[in-house]
C-alpha cells in the first residue's frame, strides 16, 4: 500500500496525504478525516526515511581565523580528515553570531556529515538548537553540557599562572583580557590569588580593552607609577603581544613578567611565557568523537541526551627569550626558471 493508494481511496491529492502524514501545511478537517480513515482501513505505515548518503565532508566553523591558535587547530583537523579519506569545508564567523548561524545552514545545504564548531557563545539559547541538527556538532576549545564538546580546563590554566606569580613573590599583579571578567581563565586566576591572600585590585584589571585604554593602563600602572605592576596575566597571546609591544624599548620591558595564553608562535617568537593548550589532542579527540557519533548513531545519542564534555589539562610554558629560530623556507610559488 502506497501513498498514491491512500490518495485514491480518500479522494484527495497525494500532496494532501503527505501533509496529513507529516502534519505539515494546512488541510481541511474533511480531507484530514478522509485520509486518516483510509490509513486506518489499509493499516498504512509511513515508510522509514532513506538513510542519507555520506558525503565524506565535514564543516569547520572557526570563530577567528586571525588567531594563530585556531589556525593550528584547523591544520590538525585537515590532516586528520585527509588521513581518514575525508575533506573539510571551512568557514570563518569573524566573532559574529549571525554569521555562525548562517554557516550552520550552509553546512546543511552542503549535506556535510558533521560540523566542528568553535562557538561564539556558550549561552543555552545558542547551544540548545544544535541538538536539532541533522548531523552531529562537536564543540572544540569550549565545552557545554548541552553538546558533545572537548576543550581545555581554562580555570586550571588561570590557576597555574597565579601560582607562578605567587612562587616568584610578586605582590603587584595585573590582568588584561580580551573578554569580560566571566571568562574561566580570569576566574581561575583570581581565585588562586585570593586563596593565597593576594588581592587583585580593580584598577589593575583591564578587560576588555582598546588600543587607547591599553596605552593608558600601561602609562598609569607601569611607566608612571611609583609602584609599577610586577607581573601581568593576559587572556591570550594576542593580548600579551600588544602589552609586550607597548613596553618594548622602555626601561620596564624586562622588569614586567608577562604571561599569555595559548602558547602560539607569537609567544614563542617574542619570548614571553604562556599557558599551553593541548590543541593537537583537542583536534584528535574531537575527530574521534565525530567518527564515534556517526558510527554509533548520533540521533540515538541525541534522543537519549547523551552530551559529553571532555576537559584536557593545560601546562604553563616559562620562557624569557624567543625560542623559534629562523628556518630556511622553500619556494611558496613554483615558476618557470
Automatic annotation (TrEMBL):
GO terms for molecular function: DNA-binding transcription factor activity; transcription cis-regulatory region binding. Keywords: DNA-binding, Transcription, Transcription regulation. PROSITE patterns: HTH_LACI_1 (PS00356), HTH_LACI_2 (PS50932). CDD domains: HTH_LacI, PBP1_LacI_sugar_binding-like. Residues 1-55 form the HTH lacI-type domain. SMART domains: HTH_LACI. InterPro entries: HTH_LacI, Lambda_DNA-bd_dom_sf, Peripla_BP/Lac1_sug-bd_dom, Peripla_BP_I. The keyword Kinase does not apply. This is Transcriptional regulator, LacI family protein. It comes from Vibrio scophthalmi LMG 19158.
Amino acid at each position: 500500500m502506497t501513498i498514491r493508494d491512500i490518495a485514491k481511496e480518500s479522494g484527495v491529492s497525494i500532496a494532501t496525504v503527505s501533509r496529513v502524514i507529516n502534519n505539515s501545511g494546512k488541510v481541511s478537517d474533511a480531507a484530514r478525516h478522509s485520509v486518516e480513515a483510509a490509513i486506518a482501513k489499509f493499516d498504512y505505515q509511513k515508510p522509514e526515511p532513506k538513510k542519507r548518503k555520506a558525503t565524506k565532508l565535514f564543516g569547520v566553523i572557526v570563530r577567528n581565523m586571525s588567531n594563530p591558535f585556531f589556525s593550528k587547530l584547523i591544520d590538525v583537523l585537515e590532516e586528520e580528515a585527509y588521513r581518514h579519506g575525508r575533506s573539510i569545508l571551512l568557514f570563518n564567523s569573524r566573532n559574529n553570531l549571525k554569521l555562525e548561524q548562517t554557516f550552520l545552514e550552509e553546512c546543511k545545504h552542503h549535506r556535510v556529515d558533521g560540523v566542528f564548531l568553535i562557538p561564539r557563545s556558550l549561552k543555552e539559547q545558542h547551544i540548545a538548537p544544535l541538538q536539532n541538527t541533522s548531523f552531529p556538532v562537536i564543540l572544540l576549545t569550549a565545552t557545554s553540557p548541552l553538546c558533545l564538546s572537548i576543550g581545555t580546563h581554562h580555570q586550571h590554566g588561570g590557576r597555574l599562572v597565579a601560582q607562578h606569580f605567587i612562587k616568584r613573590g610578586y605582590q603587584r599583579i595585573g590582568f588584561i583580557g580580551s573578554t569580560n571578567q566571566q571568562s574561566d581563565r580570569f576566574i581561575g586566576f583570581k581565585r588562586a590569588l585570593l586563596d593565597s591572600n593576594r588581592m587583585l585590585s580593580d584598577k589593575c584589571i583591564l578587560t576588555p580593552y582598546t588600543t587607547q585604554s591599553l596605552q593608558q593602563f600601561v602609562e598609569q600602572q607601569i611607566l608612571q607609577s611609583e609602584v609599577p605592576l610586577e607581573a601581568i596575566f593576559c587572556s591570550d597571546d594576542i593580548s600579551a603581544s600588544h602589552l609586550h609591544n607597548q613596553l618594548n624599548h622602555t626601561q620596564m620591558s624586562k622588569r614586567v613578567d608577562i604571561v599569555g595564553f595559548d602558547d602560539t608562535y607569537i609567544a614563542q617568537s617574542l619570548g614571553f611565557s604562556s599557558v599551553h593548550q593541548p590543541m593537537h589532542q583537542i583536534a584528535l579527540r574531537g575527530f574521534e568523537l565525530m567518527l564515534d557519533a556517526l558510527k554509533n548513531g548520533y540521533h540515538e545519542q541525541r534522543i537519549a541526551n547523551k552530551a559529553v564534555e571532555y576537559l584536557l589539562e593545560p601546562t604553563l610554558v616559562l620562557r624569557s627569550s624567543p625560542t623559534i629560530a629562523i628556518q630556511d623556507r622553500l619556494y611558496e610559488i613554483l615558476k618557470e626558471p
